[in-house]
Amino acid sequence: MSLFFASGVLAANTGVMIFDKEYDVDAAPYFAAGNGVQDDKAVIQSMFDDIETYSAANPSDVIGVHFGAGKTYRVASKLNLDSVNNVHFLGTAGNRPTISRHGNFNVSGAGTSQMWEMTNPNTVKIFDFIFDGRRDIVPRDGPFGHLIVVRGGSGFETYRSDYNRSQAVGLKIGPILAGQLPIETEDIPVDYICEDCLFEGNAKQGITVDYLYGGRFTRCVFEETGARHGDTAQAPSAGIDLEPLSTWGQNVTVGVDNILMDNCTMQQNDGAGVLITGTDGLVQNVEVKNSTFINNGKMPTGFGTFVGAVHVRNAPPTLHNIHFHDNVFRDQVTPPELGAGDPKWVFYVHGLENPSVLLEDNDFSGNTGASVLIGMRSLAEGTGQFTIRGNTIDISGGLSDLAEGNESQGPAAIAVQWSNVTVENNTITGNEPDAFDMAGVVVESTSNATPDDAVVQNNTINDLAIGLHLTFGTGLTTTPNTFNNCTVNVQDDR
Question: How distant, in Å, are the alpha carbons of 85, 95, 459 from that of 184?
């Protein structure tokens, strides 16, 4: 039994972690090279096999696993770790070890392409590592090539670690394969925790969440997902993707539940900073707060449907309790590859039934490349609610005049295209009241939904060509609102 000092790894109010068993990949009997040249896969896998055996015989013991400070462990084929309990992988803060992918890994085949797969982890923790997919030297030849895939179990945590340059996804949570222990039932919370981690330069997503009940992502940075590191991008090139799936053998009612993102940064991603998409299962109880979105949505031509800082599209039939609040959206600009007819939104909800989404107390400023800052389209009529409340929206720098889809009335801060929408207590400010058709709020129809009974009230709209532009809808509530220095306060073209 030995002692290890680490922030976040504490026992019995002592500040000290007590390990019942320890492994060191650099010591006997493993002797990993750790020089970035030799392939260390075999010795690391041998250690993992020993950990599995010990953990199965001693399920309550806490295991410490050491990798050398500053060393690079080259891995040329997939690592597997299955059904272990209370395992702590320990790097060194300030001089972190790197596990580096070298080799193709059959990236054209699902289930064989990831660098490291964990199945059914029960309180597995990673501290102070760098995981490098080496996109600069490992060409991608298919839609796979993740760094770490975690499936099932009751707890996975990662702290102060980087998941960079994968051919696909930096950290993939799920999906559950047929016959595997499910991550969770709806009654028992799961701790999947990610704190102070960097997801940089991955081709497809920084994190994909396919199936999870209970995840916390705090002070994480998701940046430069897409075509910036040695090969082409993969749609959707998002920072983080909540994408419930049941196609891998588990039919689930709720795929993604109880997710918190707090004080994260999404920047310079080719696709959305946060993407909610998929076809199977329900997404519910998602909270994103105190986070910053900077210049996302720079997807190359052909992937324009994923553009935006936040994009909810083609998602499960219902979304319950999706809450974005106290976030900052900055510098959303038009990608040079995009032209007329491509979407340019900052926060966009598309193609859903019965969504329950609250966008509250956020700051939208400096998003000159967007045609609509907050928009919705193709929302099927139902019983859901999209509430846009208390946001500060500054479009004084202008908006793009490249019309998209139903935004035919010109650019707007908010476009309302659905009946169950409430827009209230927002402050919208421009600086050129005679500018091209730029509106604070536009109310219009879509092909399968109308904005009847929508509510637009108690907003303050300043210095715009049109404060409120009504093109469709009956039963609207559009008073009271306050207009200051608008050329036209309310333009009613119904």
Answer: 16, 35, 43
Please tell me the distance from the alpha carbon of residue 437 to that of residue 55, in angstroms, as a whole number: 66
Q: Is 316 inside a domain boundary?
A: yes
Q: Could you tell me which residues are beta bridge partners of residue 215? A: 192, 259
CA separation for the pair 258, 212 (Å, rounded):
8
pLDDT tens digits, one per residue of 84-131:
999 999 999 999 999 998 866 654 545 557 899 998 888 999 999 999
> DSSP string of 61-106?
--EEEE--TT-EEEE-S-EEEES-EEEEEE--TTS--EEEE-S-TT
Q: What CATH code is carried by the domain that includes residue 476?
A: 2.160.20
Q: Which of 361, 221, 239 is nearest to 289 (CA)?
A: 361
Instruction: Flag whether 128 is in a domain.
Output: no
Q: Give me the count of residues in the chain.
A: 494
Burial 238-255 (b: 16+ CB within 10 A, else e): bbbbbbbbbebebebebb
CA distance 385 to 396: 29
Q: Where in the sequence is the domain holding 395, given as residue range(s)?
A: 108-118+139-171+184-492
Task: Evaluate if pTM is beyond 0.85.
Answer: yes
